[in-house]
Amino acid sequence: MVATLSTTARRSQPAAALEGGREYRQHVLEERPIGQWPTGAIRAALRDGNPDVLRRVTAAVNHDPYGRTAHQVEEMMRSDDVRASVRAIANVLADARKRLEAAERSEVTRVVRVLLKRSRLSEAEFAMRIGVSGEELGAYLDGETCPSTVLMVRMKRLADRFANARARMS
To answer: Partner of 103 at 20 to 30 A CA spacing, among 5, 55, 168, 170?
Structure first.
């Protein structure tokens, strides 16, 4: 394990010596989560071929495809000096975003199905009352397309109205 410098010792050393030195990068590797690293530290560690950093960056990108580390990878892809490891992580990022989008689309489909069921209307009646065709509602239910936010609010209000009306009758 690398010994860490005290705050006073870090302040007394020139910033260039700290930030450019291998000890600083090693300290960062051991002490801070990857999501808190500056882009330059990630770039330097990847340039050094550190497999632990590659694994940690890949895990961070898979965990949060629109998070800070993912944006840092995108920033590194825009630079002139793009390493194979950065390209590999960029591919992981693209795949992670596709998986996330598929999961979100699936969640929207599930919510639309719940609202339809809650309303206790037929698909044709539900579609008519929210102002779309039966084919369009079918596409939402199959996950082929996603309704707009406004349409989701309309569906919720319709389902709530019918559920509340049934509750008042009971």
So the answer is: 55
d(CA 37, CA 86): 16
**Which domain range does residue 116 map to?**
102-169
Give every CB contact of residue 76 below 8 A, 6+ residues apart in sequence: 39, 42, 43, 46, 82, 86
Residues 98-117: tens digit of each pLDDT: 999 999 999 999 999 999 99
- The region of weakest confidence among 87-91, 136-140, 159-163 is 87-91
Asked if residues 89 and 57 have their Cβ atoms less than 8 Å apart, the reply is yes
Q: Which amino acid makes up residue 6?
A: S
Query: Is 89 found in the same domain as 106?
Result: no
CB contact at 8 A, 115 and 143? no
